[in-house]
Amino acid sequence: MTAETRSAEELQFITRKPRSPLTDAINQLLQNKMAVAALIFIIVEVIIAIPPVTDFVTPFPYDKTSLYDNLAPPGAPYTGRDPEYQGKIFLLGADYLGRDILSRTLYGTQVSLAVGFIGATVSMIVGIAYGLISGYSRPTIDNIMMRFVDFLYALPILVFVILMQVYFKAVARQQNETLEPLEIPEWFIPLTVALFVAAVLIGFFMARREDGGGPGVFLAWAVGAFVLNFVLFIGYVMSTGRSFMESMIVIDTAMGGMFFLFVALGLLNWLAMARITRGQVLSVKKKEFIEAARSIGAGDRRIITQHVLPNILGPAIVYETLAIPGYIFLEAFLSFIGLGINPPRPSWGIMISENVPALRAAPWTVLVPSFALTITVLAFNFLGDGLRDAFDPRMRE
């Protein structure tokens, strides 16, 4: 090897941009074929779950009934009296009310993904905030906070979720007769979207500053924007003269029964995330780079946002990805026993529950939503395993 060649290689090595841990994790994830396939499947599901896309790809509305086509087999043509749907077929069959199974299954994707993603987001926000405060505080405060978590862990969470849903639905059923439906003005949604985008952009540019705090500041601004929009929405509903509980009921009715389900999941499923975050914080804050940051005068806010939070996000994201199937299964179970989504809005659990009596005569009415539920849960499990292997250096080859 000549001196010129060696010098060129050395110069290329020096000027080469160093790889970050995130880049290594992404490269490791892309090498996992099952995780990549699961990610592609989930992305396709998310695209299909977007309301305009769902309306476009489904041949029938989810509540379109046709008693002439009850329990129609897969591939059967529509024989109802509505001329708008003449010539269409029930690709995956119809249920006992003549509703298209394919359309209802695709609309059910909206519910399952919303419950999975929002449940995981709320759990991660509350759990990370609680665990971060607990792990970074003095031992006395840490001990008190974690004993409270231990107390909540001793309670039967599933029973509490069921009782909360029973209470919420009873109150909603009692007051829905006297409450007017929620009407959102056209200007409200663009305003909230603009506020959210503005807050995220501010957080992004602040995080890029040398003294801006790094990824933790961006995450804080994004979460703050989400909370601000939620508070503005609640405030707008209450400004119409409704009480707080009446506002919650109206919002839940407008969302088809999903709002109280989100509340129940968010309030009771953050405990494991708090424990994981607290353990990660206790481990990270003993590292040498934390001591180095303190030695140069970095304050607690900068250490948390720029050093602690970015180092605990990987395990948090991995855990919540693996927890999403649990949220989806819980929603399906609650819908199966009548405590989930309000009919006629479809949910995979509702579809299975409603069509169990026709299982022998029309098995497709149960098998299709069951298959959708199973394949979605498997996809999130494969993706979670891939993320765990990618973010854990000990799992890398």
Describe the secondary structure blueprint for this structure.
Elements: H1 3-15, H2 21-30, H3 33-49, H4 51-57, E1 76-77, E2 89-90, H5 101-136, H6 139-153, H7 157-175, H8 188-208, H9 215-238, H10 244-254, H11 258-268, H12 271-284, H13 288-295, H14 300-336, H15 348-355, H16 364-391
Antiparallel strand pairs: 1-2
Helix pairs in contact: 2-16, 3-5, 3-16, 5-6, 5-11, 5-12, 5-14, 5-16, 7-10, 7-11, 8-9, 12-14, 14-15, 14-16, 15-16
Task: Compute the separation of the termini in Å.
Answer: 31 Å
Order of helices and strands: HHHHEEHHHHHHHHHHHH
Q: Say which CATH homologous superfamily of the largest domain is assigned.
A: MetI-like
* Main sheet: strand order: 1-2
CATH architecture of the largest domain: Orthogonal Bundle
- Number of helices in the DSSP assignment: 16
Count of the domains: 2
CATH class of the largest domain: Mainly Alpha
Residue stretches low in confidence (pLDDT < 50, at least 5 long) are none
Q: Strand pairing plus helix content: what structural class?
A: mainly alpha
Helical proportion? over 70%
Question: Overview of this structure, please?
Answer:
- The protein is mainly alpha-helical and 397 residues long.
- The protein has two domains: 22-66 and 91-179 and 258-395, MetI-like fold; 184-241, no CATH class.
- It is 70% helix and 1% strand.
- It contains 16 helices and two strands.
- A two-stranded antiparallel ribbon has the order 1-2.
- Helix 14 (300-336) packs antiparallel against helix 16.
- 32% of the residues are buried.
- The mean pLDDT is 81.
